[in-house]
Amino acid sequence: MRICLHGRPRPKQPRLLHFCFCLLGLVAICPERQWLRSSGFLVAGAAGCARLELATGARAAPESVGRGAWPHKSIQRRAAEGSAAAGGDDGSDIPRRLTLGVGLSLLAAVGAKRFLIDGPPEFDPAPRSLQGRTVLITGANTGLGKESAIRLARAGATVVITARTDEKGLQALEAIKAASSASDVHFLQLDLADLANVRSFRQRFQSQSYGEKLDVLLNNAGVMAIPERRQTKDGFEQQFGVNHLGHFTLVAQMLPLLKKATGFARVINVSSTAHLGATKENMEGDLMAPERYTQWGAYCQSKLANVLFAKELDRRFKQAGVKATAVACHPGGVDTDLARWLVVNSEDAAAAKKARKENAAFEAIGTFLTRDVQHGANTQVYLAAGADGGYDRSGGGYFDNMAPGLLNPVADDEALAKQLWTESERLTGTKLDVSSAAA
């Protein structure tokens, strides 16, 4: 039954409105302009929910007449008169509305997964486009690092991967070679939680046949959301120690080889949108004070440090006239081993995978709310390939979905970045002098 506040039957909704809903879906599938796709799906979803409400409301409204459910008796009277004038309604329109509402809602859900969560389609550099380039990727035995290595090797780059143990690294090495059909892929052990190991890395790198230069340093390794405060071998809080201080020391070690790059070199810090959760206060005072520790607070702090470091490194590259750029990026919420602490409260990645597979609901939710590594690796591969216009472009930028991303205003605080640089040198005992680095 259709009722109207003016006492007249409400006409059926025109087919033009249905056509508009379908058009929104087509707009959402458009391969251009991601914001337009996202908006289309959101509006389609809202329309679907609205039609569901109309469908149920059409059934419920007549029952409320005469029971005082509406606030004004005059409205009740007019509605009742309109219902009588309509001559009744057999409710045959309700299933159609329900079907359309459910359909549009499902379309919105699928669209949200495809475009808001998964992001742009998989990006692959052209074959042989990276020949002559040497790329070093930390933490490349799994997840984003491994996927990045496959694609960059497939594009012709000389790829060097690192892992904490020889066993993990050698297994990944064979898998990457097989997946990329490339032979110019190599492995060197690196433990970012042990600065003595990091300091020995350049010598080990230079002793290899590919070790005369480095074109791209992809700082990909990291840890996330450790429930209880843990320490690195050097006594640093583990998230800040690995995610920032370990990579800070590695950059200092590899800088002389970056200066020998073919054309411009690039340093890429894999950060996270979690850096938005950090404040200026998190980057001041005792950065790793035990009483300040929370599992997400430390992670957000380390990710903001990644961005601050990239921006300050790029500024110093420019000031020193070094042919290199530094950028940071957010890969998205990706389904990788990084979340192992959230699943099993342990660094055992195998146990986390097993626990997920045994819980179908958890697996389904995790799969829907995260993107796979093929989509997650897009932005760092895009930057490592210089697809943003060249390695001499985008210096100091922060990227998300292969485009400039939403940045925490604190990340643009140059004084804070300099302060972090100085404190990082003090904590690690490493002097990172961009202007005087020599092989």
Automatic annotation (TrEMBL):
The signal peptide, as residue positions, is 1-29
UniProt entry tagged with the keyword Transmembrane helix: no
Q: Which InterPro entries is this protein grouped with?
A: NAD(P)-bd_dom_sf, SDR_fam
Gene3D superfamilies xref list? NAD(P)-binding Rossmann-like Domain
Q: Would the keyword Oxidoreductase turn up in this protein's UniProt record?
A: yes
Q: Which UniProt keywords apply?
A: Oxidoreductase, Signal
- Which family does the similarity line name? Belongs to the short-chain dehydrogenases/reductases (SDR) family.
**The protein's name in its UniProt record:** Protochlorophyllide reductase
